[in-house]
Amino acid sequence: MTDNALLCWCRAGFEPELAGELNERAARAGHPGYARTERNSGYVEFIVEDAKALSRALPWSSLIFARQKLVRLADLRGLDPADRITPMLAALEAQAGSGLNVSMFGELVVEHPDSDEHKPLAGLARSFGNALRPALRKAGWLSKADDARRPRLHVAFLAGDHAMLAMSEPGDSSPWPLGIPRLRMHPDAPSRSALKLEEALLTFLDADERERLVRDNMQAADLGAAPGGWTWVLMRNGMMVTSVDNGPLRQALLDSGRVDHLRADGFSWQPKRKLDWMVCDMVEQPARVAERMATWFREGWCKQAIFNLKLPMKKRWEETKTCLEAFEYQTHRPMVVRARQLYHDREEITVFATPK
Questions:
Q1: Long-range residue pairs from 242-246, CB within 8 A, at least 24 positions apart, any chain
Q2: pLDDT at residue 2 in the model
Q3: 228 assigned binding-site residue
Q4: Mean pLDDT value of segment 316-341
Q5: Least buried of 68, 146, 150, 253, by fewest C-beta within 10 Å?
Q6: What band does 126 get if pLDDT is binned at 50, 70 and 90?
Q7: Is 229 annotated as a binding residue?
Q8: What angle is formed at CA 21 by the lines to CA 19 and CA 309, rounded to 5 degrees?
Q9: What are the structural domains, with CATH classification, of the chain?
Q10: Alpha helix positions (H), 33-174
Q11: How far is it, in rounded angstroms, from Cα 307 to Cα 278?
């Protein structure tokens, strides 16, 4: 029952990439430890002497392969299905005795890793939350109404008799259970790739930034646009879009009056004036995409961009580092760069960039 680990969710199959990222960044921050995980489990435990200090040293916004960042409070094994609540309350009391700096949690999240192995636990997670909330409130551990200002308590089921208690801090963690925003495919969207850009705008920009940076009549370019999923998102947000691709776009986009389709190569086309936004989801080697994105900022062709980097099958963390470092170096200017493997990404990461 010790808080000696970070517990991070990730896309199943990308546990080695997250483990490598945590190992390197923790050592660089002066909190060395070791990662423990299994392939396709959907999570990584990072064992470290002081998980709370490491959590402060690794801001949520800086992590790429983690969907969620939690500080583990207790690892409870051998739970009796007839009474899982009593040992959880006891674990919280033990934590309080050892200095848990939380008098009351603002919200309870009961979840399980997003993996094929753990999906059968979904029903248990839903029903158990309804039973645990009143018990936590009676014991004084949970506010009577959700309070977004307070830390969240997470119960993560790994099996019917195995759960971890963890906590997350508002503003330094994903606001969504498992770090997955609940987005639905719009019937008018030309492709499912629209969900990637919608998630990117939600993930990388806070409410104030979205109000300031995503406005009607902004000028945007979509490189490698066909069939038009990302163009559709930009248009739906009121922008005027130049869609660059030799392939066809959905006719509804062309009929909107907000889309200009140019049959050209996204790697060679350049705008005649500075644009508010450039987005790019071209299928190409990540180093080549990163170099072209850097050119856009070095030449001052756009104010901000969102682009994808398609990762190789091996050494994906190393390739991610190499491409992002090269991108920032080749822009020849200080940049704000936010990168993450989004829920709607597959073998790729998504990057938001803008000059400082």
A1: 242/271, 242/275, 244/269
A2: 52
A3: yes
A4: 97
A5: 146
A6: very high
A7: yes
A8: 115
A9: 5-179 (3.30.2130.30), 194-355 (3.40.50.150)
A10: 51-57, 85-97, 122-138
A11: 8
310 is catalytic: yes
Element housing 335 (H / E):
strand 335-340
* Residue ranges in the chain assigned as alpha helix (H): 15-28, 51-57, 85-97, 122-138, 194-204, 207-213, 229-236, 251-255, 286-298, 316-331
**Planar angle of CA 269, 273, 275, nearest 5 degrees:** 85
pLDDT at 97: 74
Average pLDDT value over all residues in the chain: 95
Q: Are 5 and 26 in contact (CB under 8 A)?
A: no
227 is annotated as contributing to ligand binding: yes
pLDDT reported for residue 251: 93
Structure tokens that stand for 53 in this block: 């200090």
Residue 19 has pLDDT above 50, yes or no: yes
Which candidate in 196, 274, 303, 310 is catalytic? 310
Cβ-Cβ contacts under 8 Å for 334 (sequence gap 6 or more): 355, 356
Asked if residue 256 lies in contact with residue 288, where contact means CB atoms within 8 angstroms, the answer is no
Q: How far apart are CA 254 and CA 235, in angstroms?
A: 11
The residue whose two tokens read 């997955």 is 180
CA distances from 354 to 105, 206, 284, 310 (A): 36, 15, 22, 20
pTM attached to this predicted model: 0.94
Over residues 79-112, the pLDDT tens digits come to 999 999 999 999 999 988 777 777 899 999 999 9
Q: Does the annotation flag 193 for ligand binding?
A: yes
